[in-house]
Amino acid sequence: MQQRKKKRKQALLAALFLAPSILGVAVFMVLPFGDVVRRSFFDAMGESFVGASNFRAVWENGAFRLAARNTLRFGLTAIPLLFTLSFVLSLLVYRAQKLQRAYKISLVLPMVVPAAAMVLVWRIILCADGVLNQVLTRVTGKVWELDWVTGRTAFLVLVLTYLWKNMGYGMLLWLAGLCNIPRSLYDAARVDGAGGLAQVRYITLPCLRGTMGLVAVLLVINSFRVYREAYLLAGSYPDQAIYMVPHLFSHWFLALDVWKMSTAAVILMLLAAAVTAAGKAVFCIRR
C-alpha cells in the first residue's frame, strides 16, 4: 500500500515538472500544426472547404516538383555518404586512444563554425577567380574561370559543404553507441584470432543495430537544415540543381500563399513520418 502511494506521488511530481514543457509544446507546436492541417483543406481565404484540390494543385506545381526532386536527390546522396563516412571515422577515432581527443576536436570544429563564415571561405575558394581555379590554371596551363557554386557543380559543392559541416555530428552519434559496447568482447575476439574486419562484422555492427536506426533518423531530420548553406552559397534564387523545398517555402511566404505552404507542409510531414517509420522497421528500434 505504501509503495503504491509512493509511486503515485512520484508520478504526480513528474507530471508537475513535465506540465510546463508539455503545455509549451502543445501551444507553440501542436496547435499551430493543427491549424496548418486545417488550412490545407480550405481555400486561400480559409472559408470554403475544398477537399484534396489543394494537394492536387501543389503536387502539379512545377516549382514544388523541382524542389521536392532536388531535396530527395540531396537526401539520397548526402545522407548515405554521411552515414557511412561518419561510421568509419568513429571507428578510427574510437581505436585511436592516444590522439582521440585531438581527432574529436578537429572533426567537431566545423560544427561550431558559423555557417556564414564557412560559406564565405568556400566562395573564396570556388568562385570564378578563386583559389581553386588559380591552382588549376597553374597546374594545367589553361585558364580556369569556372564558378563552381553555379551550374552542374553547385550540387556537388552543396553536398561537400554539408558533409564537412556535419561529419563531426554523425561521428559523435556513432561514438555514443560504440562506447556502450564492452571492450571485453573485443579482447575475447582478439584472443580467438579475429581480425579488425571480423570484429566489426560480428561485434560492432550487431551491437549498433539500434544505434543505426537512431543515427539514420537524426541525419534525415538534420538534412532539412541544408537550406542555410544553399541560401548562403547561391542566394534566394539559386541554380535549379540546388533549388530546395525551403527555397520554395520562402518564395510562397513572400507571396502570402498560405494555403500552398500549409499543403506542402502536410505532404512533407507525411513523407518524413514514412521515412521515420521505415527507418525504425529496417533497423528494428526497440524501446
Helices and strands in order:
Blueprint lengths: L1 H38 L13 H7 L2 H34 L4 H13 L2 H12 L4 H10 L12 H26 L4 H9 L4 H12 L1 H15 L3 H8 L10 H10 L3 H26 L4
Helix pairs in contact: 1-13, 2-13, 3-7, 3-10, 3-12, 4-7, 5-11, 7-10, 10-13
Kindly describe this structure.
The protein has one domain (55-283): MetI-like (MetI-like fold), CATH 1.10.3720.10. Helix content is 77%, strand content 0%. It contains 13 helices and no strands. The protein is flat and about 70 Å long. The model has no long low-confidence stretch (mean pLDDT 81).
Please give a handful of descriptors for the protein shown.
287 residues; mainly alpha; 77% helix; 0% strand
Structure summarized in a few sentences:
The protein is an all-alpha fold. It has helices at 2-39, 53-59, 62-95, 100-112, 115-126, 131-140, 153-178, 183-191, 196-207, 209-223, 227-234, 245-254, 258-283.
β-strand percent reads: under 5%
Oligomeric state as shown: single chain
Number of domains: 1
At the first level of CATH, the class is: Mainly Alpha
**Which secondary-structure class do the elements indicate?**
mainly alpha
CATH topology: MetI-like fold
Task: Give the biggest sheet.
Answer: none
- Overall radius of gyration: 24 Å
Uncertain stretches of 5 or more adjacent residues:
none
- Global morphology: flat
From the N-terminal CA to the C-terminal CA, the straight-line distance is: 29 Å
Percent helix range: over 70%
**Continuous helix count:** 13
Task: Using the 3D structure, state the CATH architecture.
Answer: Orthogonal Bundle
Query: What is the element string, with H for helices and E for strands?
Result: HHHHHHHHHHHHH
Report the average pLDDT across residues. 81
Output the CATH homologous superfamily: MetI-like
List how many beta strands DSSP finds: 0
